């Protein structure tokens, strides 16, 4: 940790801080410069962070040297982690495709959509029973009934499933009917939920919040992993920026950055990442090319009748076409679809 | 609602959509232009929203005419709502000041801080028992013990209190020991929590999420109010932008905008909104000047020893000075402190 | 154009606005709703924009129906435009690679870098003689001497060149020594420069500003094209967001969006778009996959000695590896390298 | 300067960098930690910056200790600089108000607007002759004719003037007819223009770019000052963020931050900073309260007929009311209006 003092800091101010550093068992360093005094502290940065040295009125800035996450970092665990949803591996040589509707609306709707995406080659089925919506007047999902539909469709087709959890109270029911939890973007920093999911062994798809930095995403994953659940898949789904032409700005820089920093699998959601049906396919291909381990795509048997996110959902024929056009890029990446 | 069709849309496409609009009981309008066909739909926009017309492949854009929130809007309720925390009114002629530490660390720390802020003129005491932190390795609050300290300090000084709720399971305990709930920025779109708080009658301070638009903040408030709890105070606390000199960008435009659109009280948190101790006082004054109903300020009896947010916490003498320097601006605004 | 009136607007207010619309020769429409009056105006939107109806105190909002650009739009010109830099086509079946150093530092540095990128398969050479730098104390480029070096290296190797123009006064000299102008991100809305470049017939690579929306980029291109120069190549190079892990957030959504809206070629600069050497190759592949017509990559014969942007410049061996690894993705996209 | 090496860096890698630091005459420091080696370099940071150490593949990060600007910093020049436009001081005890139309449209329009703002108490007149507009089809200003109108109106009323410069070729003409240059937000990093203005002694109002950090604004000012012109006034006018309710997000944090870091006067433009007529007055008051030295406000004799920015321009009566309501806040700030 590097501590820069304010110009007005005296030698006594510096000594007081050096004493606090030494008292933690870390090694203090004193570096007087021509315009500023700089202090160093070598040792366990989490111990040093607890000192809250930036609170000292004589401190101008504090710069950590190490990343704030540990168990999710590649330094801690150099090899790629493979997470399985059902029997589908994420983070291995295969490129995994999750597809399905935004919301589960009825048995018929989900069954038809699931059959169509499975036939086209999707590996997992998505579908929301509990829908966090910006407006209280929007469709909020079928809840428990939706979960049961999801379980039934999954059983009938043998396709593993992912569904969003928004409340700790629903964890057991979701665990019973689905193969993986999804923590949605709005709940990425809902630590109650992260800790609860971390106490299970269920695979967990963790979506980046729309204003979360990549380090904050990794710290959110660290909550889950450090609570005991190592089965975390990271998901880039777009961030909020000034650009209004698209619903979000899909930050594909995130993919190689996360893969370099962390051993966890990384997938991309081009549906939310663009918010425009016609941009989903090109961005899914870009996700493959920059190293993602999979994509999650919204597909609806009839998007024009969808109760949510229909504008960004693919028609079945479009998904079919996407899977076909994805294949050469998956092969170019040296992977299998 | 205004629906612009794509250039390739046929008359039959337009008719199909007009039929769907008419079927809802709304009034359809057909406006053929030279380069695009535009459709109108007059009536209840929430019914129209449910049609999800933007999902239609022949639709280029859908623009609502009315705001998506209702009960929190000034059109629905023209007069200012006054919310009381204990006996302190928010949204009336008085300018309300909430002060206290980021986290409750001990009985002594909270008691001393509370006494000092009360002596300087603060109306309410803040202090967190449950602390959502980006890192699982940071101090997470004293939990239940912290709540009991908060209740005891409040009782000893007769000062009303606000504390953050992060989990529905803690609601009753918090309701017992504190006078108001705070929904933190990270939980602004935790709808489970919003609905649960909405089923109480406890005043609720709702902080804007760091990536939430003002309309999303008003929709989050609509969750609480439409669930039955009208006692909501909105709080601007800074948003995430590219600017790195400050922790957040305090969006004071929000204050007059929210006051014009909504009848709810609006306060400002210049501590999180700047993240820099030396910017808190000028931004508190700016909050008064642009029409805020109050401020919430982090103060610690010794910020250099604070377990969280010490760098942005005022020293007691600085808070005292802030209260003195705030007074002329409060008077200039025609209010009382 | 759709005009929503404020709730307090009277019938007379609406009539006054309808009269102004009619006076322009456009067709006015009156749509009274239950809570708002909506007006329509059908006809040439640029005439309507000149009315500045949003200035009327009785107007709540004005929504245009058509895009504000015309000559650069695909509606106006459905077929892909191919722009040639030297004999290298952009926007055709070939995928074009521009490579070279950020700044021209010496004849030797540019010659060696050019030879190495040409040998690896780059089609065009980049190199800056006039460098806009955030700090007045940073290296500002060799100026005229740099241009002459660029011309000499280009002639010796027969490789076409692109170089940045920052001042109208330099246009002739640059036109003499280089094959294409680059308008840098900081100058994307320098309309003096756009108009001047628009009066030439030189191919112009127009980089998106770090805070420019895609529509603003297209309008900047419209300046050049409407001034008489149709040879414009658009370049996505990253935008400013809250994310600090990367220098910019590369907005690849821009590629399919721009290709769908405009007939102009679109390339990507993954060097500035990431600011991290190790992210350049994956993002170049992503650019191919989402439909870009080319990439521009910073390469330096010895990045550790570069006078600018060395941290994001590839070593020659890395560029060689990039070209090899790009090929399967280019083929997957049905293009040639 | 603090240099953190990558985990794989060897002692020889560190030594090579230490040698490069020593060769500059700066003092190198070697700090081996448990997980990373950290190097320090004490001395002139601009010399160190030229080393471009971040380009070294063994370097993980480089953190400067000192700010990159010098002449504009308060450390370099502790006392407030007062800049005069005509006889109006900026940065002294008086609070300065610049008012006038976005564009000069005619002698009559400017004369009437100028008379009305002067009568209400404005100190300076603004008005654009050269208008940078996003669209080539928007009104671009009257050019030279506009300048002459500005000069004539100024002479007739004895009110000093500010007008925007977009092209070095116009500098002399503008200098002849106006009292101060304005560098607009789109040109904040047009270094050709900054250097040209820096070679004059004319007061220069430098507006922050919509994506410029505060440090970038100070570096832009450093261009002007280091070129020889110390008469720079900084202007916060809003930045681009995800918030769509307002045209820009007015970043008032900038005011105290800039005043603490720099000795230059700082003013605020609430017209562009909000883009909404009804938000201008509250944000002007907030600007006073947080320490701004003045405001610049768009006023038009008839905003409904304005050729640009009418929606954010005040009616004369609104400006009159603003000046009256500003006074108590100016007095609360201990200043005069």
Provide a concise account of the structure shown:
The structure is a homotetramer of 337-residue chains. Chain A has 337 residues and is an alpha/beta fold. Chain A contains eleven helices and 14 strands.
What are the SSEs and their pairings?
The structure is a homotetramer of 337-residue chains.
Chain A: E1 2-5, H1 11-23, E2 27-32, E3 37-42, H2 45-50, E4 59-63, E5 83-85, E6 88-90, E7 96-100, H3 107-120, E8 124-126, H4 144-157, E9 161-164, H5 171-177, E10 180-183, H6 191-198, E11 204-207, H7 214-226, E12 232-236, H8 254-261, E13 266-268, H9 270-274, H10 277-289, E14 294-298, H11 316-332
Parallel strand pairs in A: 7-8, 7-14, 8-9, 9-10, 10-11, 11-12, 12-13, 13-14
Antiparallel strand pairs in A: 1-3, 1-4, 2-3, 5-6
Report on this model:
4 copies of one chain form a homotetramer. Chain A is α/β, with parallel strands linked by helices and 337 residues long. Chain A is 35% helix and 18% strand. Chain A is built from 11 helices and 14 strands. In chain A, strand 10, helix 6 and strand 11 form a beta-alpha-beta unit. The model of chain A has no long low-confidence stretch (mean pLDDT 94). Chains A and B meet through helix 2 and helix 7 of A and helix 2 and helix 7 of B.
């Amino acid at each position: 940790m590097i501590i820069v003092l304010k110009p007005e800091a005296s030698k006594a101010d510096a000594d007081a801080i050096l004493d606090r550093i030494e008292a933690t068992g870390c090694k203090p360093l004193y570096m007087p410069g021509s315009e500023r005094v700089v202090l160093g502290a070598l040792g366990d940065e989490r111990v040093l962070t607890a000192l809250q040295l930036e609170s000292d009125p004589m401190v101008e800035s504090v710069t950590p040297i190490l990343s704030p996450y540990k168990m999710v970092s590649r330094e801690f665990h150099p090899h790629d982690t493979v997470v399985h949803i059902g029997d589908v591996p994420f983070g291995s040589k295969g490129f995994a495709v999750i597809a399905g509707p935004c919301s589960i609306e009825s048995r018929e709707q989900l069954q038809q959509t699931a059959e169509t995406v499975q036939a086209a080659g999707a590996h997992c089925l998505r579908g929301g029973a509990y829908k966090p919506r910006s407006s209280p007047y929007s469709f909020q999902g079928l809840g428990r009934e939706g979960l049961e539909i999801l379980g039934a469709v999954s059983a009938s087709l043998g396709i593993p499933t992912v569904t969003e959890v928004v409340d700790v109270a629903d964890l057991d029911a979701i665990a019973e009917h689905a193969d993986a939890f999804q923590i949605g973007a709005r709940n990425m920093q809902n630590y109650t939920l992260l800790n609860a999911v971390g106490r299970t062994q269920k695979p967990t798809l963790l979506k980046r919040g729309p204003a979360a930095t990549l380090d904050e995403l990794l710290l959110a994953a660290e909550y889950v992993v450090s609570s005991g659940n190592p089965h975390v898949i990271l998901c880039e789904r777009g961030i909020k920026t000034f650009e209004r032409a698209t619903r979000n700005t899909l930050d594909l820089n995130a993919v190689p950055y996360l893969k370099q920093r962390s051993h966890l699998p990384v997938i991309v959601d081009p549906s939310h990442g663009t918010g425009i049906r016609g941009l989903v396919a090109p961005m899914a291909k870009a996700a493959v090319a920059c190293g993602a381990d999979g994509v999650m795509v919204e597909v609806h048997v009839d998007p024009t009748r969808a109760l949510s996110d229909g504008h960004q959902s693919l028609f079945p024929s479009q998904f079919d076409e996407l899977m076909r056009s994805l294949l050469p890029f998956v092969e170019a990446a040296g992977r299998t679809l």
